[in-house]
Amino acid sequence: MEIFIKLCREKLINPVLHSRSPISEVSLGVAVGVFLGLTPTVGVQMYLVAIIWSIYRYLFRRHFNLPVGVAMVWISNPLTMVPLYYLFLVTGCWVLDTQNNFSYQLFADTLTRISETSGAWEKIMQGIRFLLIDLGWPMVVGGFVYAVPGFIISYFTTSRILTSHRKSKARLAGLSYEVWRTQNETQH
User: Fold this and answer.
1) What is the largest CA-CA distance in the chain?
2) pLDDT for 35-88, tens place per residue?
3) Spatial contact of 93 and 135, defined as CB atoms under 8 Å apart
């Protein structure tokens, strides 16, 4: 358990707390990463964050913190993927009022078999085929049931926590929050 906590702190919390980007950019990075981490897009989530970042930056001329967004997709990782994705499947079947023909064990065994496939590209293609084509809409819909609230909650929670953290750092430095922000936040 201690290793898991250390890994969460290192991979999820520290990128947020140590970022020098404005709070809105960090919060949006977290929200985008959480959203994609809660969709059945294993293997391509980090690429999708980069694509969304590029569109957001070059088309809309706005910014979000790309490294933070990439870090947040790791909420679905080799340890959490099977239970999360099965939850997406069950939820999607419930929302769409369709039958789930996969037991948890069959689902887990299929994902394990795919993960043991040699070659990254083949693994990604088999994963996409299984999650999005074989399981189809229930998997996608179930993911969105969690991804949309995850986006909203993570944005506002991050904004609140990061504001509090930065105000605390300003107090410790003997500065007003506005002065601390001017000295420590990077602007694009």
Assistant:
1) 61
2) 999 998 877 889 999 999 999 999 998 889 999 999 899 888 777 888 998 999
3) no
